[in-house]
Write a structure and sequence with these properties.
homotetramer; alpha/beta; N-(1-d-carboxylethyl)-l-norvaline Dehydrogenase, domain 2; three-stranded mixed beta sheet; 13% strand; NAD(P)-dependent oxidoreductase (chains A, B, C, D)
């Protein structure tokens, strides 16, 4: 299968490399050229444009950061229109349910296919091919691209036909990550006000009840009060919580925790933390209680 | 060491049995007699009253359900006044920081010692001696009771001198449990509104990012929509969140998530769910979005 | 001055009539024809299109329901491009700060002027020319259109140059209306749970501390539990709170009450109340406490 | 009728003076002596103790600041036991529903009567005899004390028999005051972020939609950023919101706005504002958005 890959950021670069290791023929394109060179050195072919790349794919994988860039790179550029009939576009980034639906309809009209396949896992996991991949799309199409996805993930999690379904699962999972951070932040602020430092408190809970990757990863940052370099910048976290709020609005499902998160994230950004990791929500929780001045 | 044990509920009974297995001499007392008989059959001695029991202890362990029962069974009854000089009272239940401070002061006046040692773990973990035990109290006294606590727990987590410290850690950990449930409830309501059932969604997140005991235990209840028999009744959960709110008030630390939890728990109880497991907060989240009527 | 008026809904119709009474020459256009006929009978001239209308105006007033309709009726139609040089467009509806900025820039490029002038007041107030009008725009331009605005309002409230300023004041005022409703709803639910009906409670507070139009108007609906016909539909109220949330995001100002309102409004709409007056938030507050079942 | 008055703070002093002006025979007692001297100069008789005062009353009015002081001054002192048979105790302060019920039962046992009559109005209104008085208690007893209450208030608002009812109305009204302040604070923070100062914004809304005493009084403080001397200290405001939360818990009625208020008040107090007027919640709203640093 000829695989095209567009969007070679921290995640995408490792994923494309992993496809090469698995023996796939991979063509790549990226808005900035550096990662293209790296991948060419590893065996990939460089395309001159997203549109040129699309024209030669059986499978086009995109890993672009947000709705806007998907629109710009693949839709407005008419790249998708260049795809061969019956080819498949797999969008592995986190986008809105609305965009997923729109892309599904667009491909229907073009005679190509759309699969949503957002992933759980950070860049190191991506580079190791150990992602968890949530997949929605027509079952027969999902089946066709399974060999490609299996090169990237330790497990595929199919969640049905409708293209927005996998998006919503990803959005809901990221919302849960944000709640885990806020929860650690608030709980650490409370215990700190009683003289117990965050390092002690979070070691206890993340070694026991909350011995899970999400808590241990972000918990480590909070324990060390080290929020740069950011794995997930506050501003991106805000974008993800906004996606949850938009989905909750679309289907009229109140999400009280998301409202709290929205305000904590705005508070953090208003205090200059937009580029810190969103684990720095713990600092916002401490500031509410004026803990640094005690 | 002669150990007295008061409060033989689901947790206490397994803990007292574990002390017997570890070779300690254990005298027990309980407000209702059935568990006393069970433990006597396993080698314990029955005391006629809490006060009679206290009079013969090197170490008195109490595992009573709330502040009120501690006051009634141990303080108003003058049981603590019967303790030998230099003996130690270990309170292993979840009580308020205020009560911990008051008990610490009371023991100081009586010439006995007070150690806070609340636990993380459910009854089956208690019966296996595998609890995680958070401990605060004078270091020398902590050291003296370590052999007793080691019979009950897989690990001790010392958090300092002040008696309320261990309480606050436990209260904060339970607050985090409540946030984990609410988070799963809200996220499941959102994904369900897009056609993905809770079983599918929660299998994904609790197998990956949230592969931790707290999420897997409560997640299982939500996936199966089975909230009885309750491990932690909604009404007890409300009591625990109220302890977090009281602590946050005492030290003036805002806890926005706790305010949301308070309302969700009240909503649940107003709808007849006081005796369900607090994992049924997921039903409250679904009700807010009227999902059953869709 | 030749005045054009676009957007003859419940508000706009009374405002245009008021301009005629004040002796202005008024040309009107509307997407649905009925209100045009009424106004022609009162002395207005009908234009064939928004663009035709714009071509003949010294002052163009628009009272269109939301950002989308402004874009469609005035921008996409190229109506604004037809405005004579140095003419003034007064937007008296509630739109987003972003749209106000965009329209300001658009008019700068076209050689025409833009004034934001959203209003406080319901249709009967509009028809009586007693609106309160919040105005932002270049001072000299504000001055030029003062005679027109004075025909519509009992008082003008200038808030500076930037076109989005008046929008934000209006959005913030509507946010305050929503909080007043939610506050009455929650307080009435609480007192009702103690046996005091909403009619008794709200009579007391709206006759004393809260003897203000906002409280008395919405309080009457809650006291009578009569939410149709809607003055402000729940769905429009949601749109207005969403504008507050968007503004709060744009400038990174947390608004915790807006988050609560968002969820209460979603809850209401999920329960079928989208077309009721947003005073029906009181029913949502009662439902949270299951009061109807007590 | 012989009237005894206990609790001569800022409110009580003016109320007792008003009773004297109305021609009642008034005996007074207070924990600190200064206001007693003032009232004796105006014609009151001083009692040596609350108990001595109670022994000579047809009607005992208390205006003590909280549950604790009522308990100490009237219950623990056995003052209430000294009341003549069939006399009436009117509690005009804001206390918890639980205390109102307990006092009702206590008086039933003693052969005296209990009326709850909390008031709406600040000290100047009290001194002018223009309070609004919410009354609950047995109808025949309410009738007997009407002449006394009419000397103090411009209007009586009866809300039924149960002693806690009037308390809950007062608590709910104070909760609404707090929401009005928070609403002005959040809305002012938002508009300020767009360059409109609080003075301008609040003049508009408190002259129009929100032209009510509550908004104008607190609005003035926020417009002038002058929070001392406090009419209602932040710490007392917290006590009142806590009463609302306790009532909401007792009857299982979620109050999401009260949760937000609780956190804003804690944030304010953690930042040193406990003695400022609670209108200073506006500063907390601004701090969340870091407005002073912009």
């Amino acid at each position: 299968m000829k695989v095209g890959f567009v969007g070679l950021g921290a995640m995408g670069q490792g994923m494309a490399a992993q496809l090469l290791k698995a023996g796939h023929t991979v063509t790549v394109w990226n808005r900035s050229p550096a990662p293209v060179e790296t991948l060419v050195a590893e065996g990939a072919t460089a395309a001159k444009s997203a549109r040129a790349l699309a024209a030669k794919c059986d499978v086009l994988i995109s890993m672009l950061p947000d709705d806007h860039s998907v629109h710009e790179v693949l839709v407005a550029s008419k790249a998708l229109e260049a795809l061969p009939k019956d080819s498949v576009h797999i969008n592995m980034a986190t986008v809105s349910p609305g965009l997923a639906r729109a892309l599904g309809a667009l491909h229907d009209g073009l005679g190509s296919h759309y699969v949503s396949a957002p992933v759980l896992g950070r860049p190191d996991v991506a580079a190791a091919g150990k992602l968890n991949i949530i997949v929605s799309g027509a079952p027969a199409v999902q089946e066709r691209v399974t060999p490609v996805l299996e090169a990237l993930g330790q497990r595929l999690w199919p969640v049905g036909d409708a293209p927005e379904r996998a998006c919503v699962v990803k959005i809901a999972a990221n919302f849960m990550l944000a709640t885990a951070i806020e929860s650690m932040g608030e709980a650490s602020a409370l215990t700190r006000a009683y003289g117990i430092d965050a390092d002690t408190f979070l070691e206890i809970v993340t070694s026991t009840l909350f011995a899970a990757p999400a808590y241990q990863g972000y918990g480590k940052m909070i324990r060390e009060a080290r929020y740069t370099p950011a794995g997930m910048k506050m501003a991106w976290g805000f974008k993800d919580v906004s996606l949850a709020l938009a989905a909750s609005q679309e289907r009229q499902v109140p999400l009280p925790f998301a409202g709290v998160l929205r305000d904590s994230l705005l508070d953090a950004m208003a205090h200059g933390d937009a580029d810190k990791d969103w684990a720095a929500l713990a600092e916002t929780a401490a500031r509410r209680g004026n803990l640094d001045a005690r």
